[in-house]
Each structure stands twice: as C-alpha cells, then as structure tokens.
C-alpha cells in the first residue's frame, strides 16, 4: 500500500512533506509519537536559560537513529545563535506535546517529532497539527482536499486570523527567522481588511470561554448592545468574509476542515 505522504526537498524551504495521492478534507494524514519533549511553558521566543539547559540535556541523551533524525533538522547559523545549536534546532522545530503539571494546572510541553517537525509553514495552510492526549501522539489532519504531489503545510502562528501581513511577517521573522512568501502574504489587501480584523478581535475577546482567563467575558463598548447570540452570528459572518479573502480565493480551510476533523476523531475515539 502506498504511503499517504512522503518527505522530500522543497525548493527554497529545505525538506518538507508532500502528498503521495489525493488526501480528502478531514483525513488523518499521520499519527506520530514524539522523539522527546521538554517542559517549556514560555513562548519559544522568550525561553529562559533554565529551559535552554533542559533542552540541551535532553538532546545530549539522544542516541543512534533518534540523534541523526534530530540533527537533520534546521538550526540557526552560528552568528545568529544565542544558545547551543541544538537548543535553536529544538526551538525552530518543536510542536505542542504531552501535558505536564504546572502551578496546579496541566499545560503542553514542547516536543520534537521525526516527520511532523519537518512541516513547513503557510499562512494559508492545508493541514493542522494537534496533540492527542489520549493516544499520546501528534496528529496531522487535512483542512482541505490536498492534491497529489502538493506540499502539506501548517501554520506556525496561533490565532493567525487576527494578524495582518506585517504582523505575521514580524512574528515569523522574530521567532522562526524566515520571511514568509506564501500566497496569502503576497496579497495586497491589508488596508480594507484592517477595520474588519479589529472588529473580529473585539468579538473574539467577548465570546471566548469564560474559564480561559477571566471570571466573566470583558465588556466591549462597541458591541455592548448586542446579546451573545447576535454577537456570535456577526462574528461568524465577519470570519467568513475575513478568511474568505479577495479575488475569489476559497474560504480559509479551518472554516470547513475542522468540523470534518472532529467527526473523524469522534469516530475513532
């Protein structure tokens, strides 16, 4: 049976993952255990010296095939490094991993995976990564139909729907040290999207689950006259407009891919 994907050199990006055949929306592309994980709870661009030492300790313990796989991952050139090359290799390629207890709560550690750590970024990704705590594996699902020989990409940026091109470029440059040239970054449409994105931010803060950070949702003056249902309906309308984008570009894959992914995960639970 032909594997659903393969690793190969991607021009201008190094190695990446490519579809061997048509992959349908919602398909689980790969499930993969991690090589190792490290309890890093700060953002990877604000790692502490203690966390850097923990990373180096873990990488020093790797041996054999695991060490060779890890050493093949990209790291920063010598003149751009703050820590040992293996620390930067970890920071540039890690993904959310198993949960660990911290201050009476459980938060994700960061982990390295043999294949999924090689996934390249796109601001308009065709797949999404997730950690399955029950299976203790990382999972990759298709957010849209992915044609054969197409590169499989994820977004490195959390909540990237709210970021304009300049914000995304700055985040990617400061955290991952590259300039994005994906199809979304090439669109000159930031001026007319600024107000809509600001409105989305406000409604997102208003509608976020109350158990995330605050006891009650913050009251936003601009939408205080709306009840939660109306606010949610307007939020979804704006989200479709925002992520649908200009020039008849199809709506952002997360609008359609995530429900299929949830269905597939529930079916295998």
Would you write up a description of this structure?
With 269 residues, the protein is of the alpha+beta class. It has two domains: 5-160, SET domain (Beta-clip-like), CATH 2.170.270; 190-244. The protein is 34% helix and 20% strand. It has seven helices and ten strands. It has helices at 49-61, 64-71, 85-93, 165-176, 190-207, 228-244, 254-268, and strands at 5-10, 14-19, 28-32, 36-38, 95-102, 105-112, 120-121, 127-132, 137-142, 151-154. Strands 1-2-10-7 form a four-stranded mixed beta sheet, with no helix packed on it. A three-stranded antiparallel beta sheet has the order 3-9-8, covered by helices on one side. Helix 5 runs antiparallel to helix 6. The protein is globular. It starts with a strand and ends with a helix. Mean pLDDT is 76; it is low at 209-225, 245-251 and 255-263.
Distance between the amino and carboxyl termini: 25 Å
The amount of beta strand, in percent, is 15-25%
List the secondary-structure elements in sequence, H or E.
EEEEHHHEEEEEEHHHH
Q: How big is the Rg?
A: 20 Å
Question: Order of strands in the sheet with the most strands?
Answer: 1-2-10-7
The coarse silhouette is globular
- Biggest β-sheet, characterized? 4 strands, mixed
Which CATH class of the largest domain?
Mainly Beta
Name the CATH superfamily assignment of the largest domain. SET domain
Number of helices: 7
**Helical coverage, percent range:** 25-40%
CATH topology description of the largest domain: Beta-clip-like
Q: Unreliable stretches, pLDDT < 50, 5 or more residues?
A: 209-225, 245-251, 255-263
Would you identify the CATH architecture of the largest domain? Answer: Beta Complex
Would you count the extended β strands for me?
10
Broad structural category? alpha+beta
């Amino acid at each position: 049976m032909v594997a659903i994907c393969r690793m190969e050199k991607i021009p201008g990006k190094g190695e990446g993952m490519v579809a061997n055949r048509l992959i349908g929306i919602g398909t689980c592309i790969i499930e993969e255990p991690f090589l190792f994980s490290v309890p890093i709870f700060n953002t990877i661009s604000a790692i502490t010296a203690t966390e850097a030492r923990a990373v180096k300790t873990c990488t020093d313990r790797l041996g054999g095939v695991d060490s060779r796989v890890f050493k093949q991952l990209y790291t920063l050139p010598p003149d751009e490094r703050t820590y040992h090359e293996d620390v930067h290799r970890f920071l540039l390629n890690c993904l959310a991993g198993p949960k660990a207890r911290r201050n009476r709560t459980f938060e994700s550690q960061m982990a390295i995976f043999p294949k999924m750590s090689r996934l390249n970024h796109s601001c308009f990704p065709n797949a999404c990564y997730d950690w399955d705590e029950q299976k203790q594996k990382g999972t990759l699902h298709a957010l849209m139909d992915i044609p054969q020989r197409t590169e499989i990409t994820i977004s490195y940026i959390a909540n990237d729907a709210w970021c304009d091109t300049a914000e995304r470029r700055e985040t990617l440059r400061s955290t991952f040290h590259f300039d994005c040239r994906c199809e979304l970054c090439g669109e000159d449409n930031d001026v007319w999207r600024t107000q809509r994105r600001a409105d989305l931010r406000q409604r997102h803060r208003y509608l976020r689950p109350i158990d995330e950070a605050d006891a009650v949702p913050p009251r936003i003056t601009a939408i205080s006259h709306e009840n939660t249902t109306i606010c949610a309906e307007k939020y979804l309308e704006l989200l479709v407009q925002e992520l649908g984008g200009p020039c008849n570009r199809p709506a952002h894959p997360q609008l359609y891919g995530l429900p299929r992914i949830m269905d597939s995960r529930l079916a295998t639970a």
